[in-house]
Design goal:
Elements (H helix, E strand, L loop, with lengths): L2 H7 L5 H9 L3 E3 L2 E2 L14 E3 L2 E2 L8 E6 L3 E2 L9 E2 L11 E3 L7 E7 L2 H8 L7 E7 L7 H7 L2 E2 L2 E2 L4 E6 L2 E6 L6 H7 L5 E9 L2 E2 L8 E3 L2 H8 L1
Parallel strand pairs: 6-7, 9-15
Antiparallel strand pairs: 1-2, 1-3, 3-4, 5-9, 5-17, 8-9, 10-14, 10-15, 11-12, 13-14, 15-16
Helix pairs in contact: 1-2
Length: 229
């Protein structure tokens, strides 16, 4: 089994994120730091450590939905000066956040120890829909809607065409199928708009619904199926 696949199956991170951990020198096999992607391991024989802690495969997969409040960072690493989403979740297995939802944003966040599910939600080739409700600091100018629908040039590249619906003079809903870093904020900045509020309300067919801010719960099998459908 490839090392990154093992880390994903153990609930450390998605396969892509696990690859970065390997490159960063945070993974050791039998006492030696490994930085080569594609390294083969045998979970029954090899001792694999992540950040100096022994990694064991979680047999039970768990998927949690959290209504993330603004002001919390999405990482499994803890920093004294930062509030972390992990403090909002109670799980009997190790889980990690799936995908990007920056500190100032809120709404639907998935946490899991299922690396394959995380891969299907995050990898660009699957193009899972993510819907956001956005408020900005002033009236939305002419041309913004069309630009969002056709693509906007950002530093990472041109954004994919997105679904757009104007809600008020200063708010809109948008559905993305990609996850460039701070994509919505940067798209708005191209039109001199500052985002005052950004809330994710849906991932694929799973909606945030009436889950209170800061609350979380375990998803049922039917809800997990909605995520992947």
């Amino acid at each position: 089994m490839r090392l990154q696949k093992f880390l994903a199956s153990a609930g450390i991170a998605s396969r892509r994120r696990a690859e970065q951990f390997i490159l960063d020198g945070r993974v050791a096999v039998n006492g030696k730091i490994v930085t080569e992607l594609g390294t083969k391991v045998d979970p029954d024989v090899d001792k694999i450590k992540f950040d100096k802690k022994l990694v064991e495969v979680e047999t039970e997969k768990i998927v949690i939905i959290l209504n993330k409040p603004p002001g919390y960072v999405c990482t499994t690493r803890h920093f004294k000066e930062e509030k972390n989403v992990m403090s909002l979740v109670r799980a009997h297995a190790r889980v990690y956040p799936v995908g990007r939802l920056d500190k100032d944003s809120s709404g639907l966040l998935i946490l899991t120890n299922d690396g394959e599910l995380a891969e299907k939600l995050m990898h660009p080739k699957y193009r899972k829909e993510k819907e956001y409700f956005v408020t900005v600091n002033k009236e939305i100018p002419y041309g913004f809607e069309q630009a969002v629908k056709t693509g906007i040039q950002l530093e990472e590249g041109v954004t994919l065409p997105a679904l757009y619906a104007q809600e008020t003079a200063r708010s809109f809903s948008v559905v993305l199928k990609q996850g460039m870093k701070r994509q919505i904020r940067l798209m708005c900045a191209q039109f001199d708009l500052r985002v005052n509020g950004l809330r994710r309300v849906r991932i694929n067919n799973l909606e945030l619904g009436g889950l209170a801010q800061g609350d979380s719960r375990v998803l049922s099998q039917s809800e997990i199926a909605k995520l992947l459908k």
